Amino acid sequence: MPCASRLILTFLALAASLPLVAPSLAAPTSAAQDTRPNILLVFSDDQRADSIGAYGNPAARTPHLDALAARGTTFQRAYCLGGPHGAICIPSRAMLHTGRAYFRLDLEEFEGAPTLGERLGAAGYRTFATGKWHNGRGAFARSFQRAENVMFSGMSDHHLVPVCDLDEGHFSESRQATTHSSELFARSALGFLDEPGEGAPFFCYLAFSAPHDPRDPPQPWAHRYYADLPPLPANFAPQHPWDIGAMTVRDELLAPWPRTEAIVRQQLAEYYALIEHMDHQLGQVLAAVAARADGRETLVVFASDHGLALGSHGLLGKQSVYEHSLRAPLILVGPGVAAGRRSNALVYLSDVYPTLLAAARVEEPDPTSFGQSLWPVLRSERATMRDSLFLAFARSQRAVTDGRYKLIRYPEIDRLRLFDLASDPHELFDLAPDPVHAERIAQLTARLVAWQRDLGDDAPLTVATPRQAEIDLTGRTREPDRWQPAWIRRKYFGQ
């Protein structure tokens, strides 16, 4: 039996308790005492944390996000927990809006799970949404009183966006918008923010579909990066050496194997252009928030559903537990939030749920919730909320980190990896084969098993017949999906 399997079997019985804390519904505050903040929650799509200048990337031009980070607190170690299939955005959004872990959550309609918008609406907030949802219509209708230009599909050509509206519980007929998605959704948010609001605080959810592919920004924006192509990621590789699952999903077909420096840098140029274009729209929204004269402060949250590989480790998509794929940006600005602060607390995107409810004074214990309020960190009462963090993809990948060391287990190919994220943040040097780390691997394995138990994750860490680990996809046939515009088909698929 391989060493990795023996270690897993040795520690399958070990467990440790993990705290679960989150709020629930409370009665609205009286109008005479209502000093609760407005809430603007902005969510991008497939955006790596390191695609923002404020996260240390000089190639990314994100002036408005950088300014937001300067005015608030940036969480450097925020993650999406993962998901049961390749569309990680579905569970990520479900967890954001319910605070629950995907293992115990209906990812379409969130049955039995009150949503963020639902609770804020019941507490007296005016709730509005625009942009990508990608979960069930019933869950959306429960969450928002009004909506304009909502996209229920997972993706689209950014210049041909299928959308509808919501008013008084009724959806309009679907239509196809021809304004670029980032401009379309920002304009809807601007329209809502221009309304006076009748004295009640608002909750505005603005969910961009950028920078998710197709990577087709308005051309003037793309050409700004073509002239000086972004550098490759530090962990660029032509191929991933192991079959870790989902190796040929749609995301991975956007460039041939082996990945080349030229193609990855071209796609990074288009990716960064989408982000800069989105950042420009966000700047207009933030200016509108600042110009409001309703007498309320606004709590602004910016995050993304997860990251993206884009050449890192030879991958393109988000279907891995590497840092580039499940780590996401998270920035908070507003009343009670320290300015210019960077936190290394281990947090999940689902922590946004109890954090915003607490800001709105909507608090009540919910034993089924997974998220934890970030206010103890935001108020400098604690350095972190967790001593470890768990990541998962499908049944093929599991990981745990204590903040410094990260253990990754691939059950289906019987492989184990260990990285020191302090000295090796790009996860390049595997320490697992070195026997000096045997005790550390054992300890982290015990934590991983404890997380699985507490979250209801029944995926085995060993399988009876592991498949072959090594893989070579050189020359694999590729076909573009139906959303890729003609110029991308010509450029990257030779059609």
Write a short abstract of this structure.
The protein is α/β, with parallel strands linked by helices.
Characterization of this structure:
With 495 residues, the chain is an alpha/beta fold. The chain has two domains: 1-18 and 388-463, 2-Layer Sandwich (Arylsulfatase, C-terminal domain); 35-385, Alkaline Phosphatase, subunit A, CATH 3.40.720.10. Helix content is 27%, strand content 17%. The chain contains 13 helices and 19 strands. Strands 1, 2, 5, 6, 7, 8, 9, 10, 11, 13 and 14 form an eleven-stranded mixed sheet that branches. Strands 4-16-17-18-19 form a five-stranded mixed sheet. Strand 16 (389-393) and strand 17 form a beta hairpin. Helix 7 crosses helix 8. The radius of gyration is 22 Å and the shape is globular. The protein starts with a helix and ends with a helix. Residues 1-31 have low confidence and may be disordered.
N-to-C CA distance: 48 Å
- What is the CATH fold-level name of the largest domain? Alkaline Phosphatase, subunit A
Tell me, what is the CATH class of the largest domain? Alpha Beta
Could you tell me the mean pLDDT?
93
Count, helices: 13
- The secondary-structure class comes to alpha/beta
Question: Which CATH-level-2 architecture of the largest domain?
Answer: 3-Layer(aba) Sandwich
The number of strands is 19
The description of the largest β-sheet is: 11 strands, mixed
Gyration radius, rounded: 22 Å
What percentage of the residues does DSSP assign to strands (E)? 15-25%
Helix content: 25-40%
- Overall geometric form: globular
Task: Domain count, please report it.
Answer: 2
- The CATH fourth-level homologous superfamily of the largest domain: Alkaline Phosphatase, subunit A
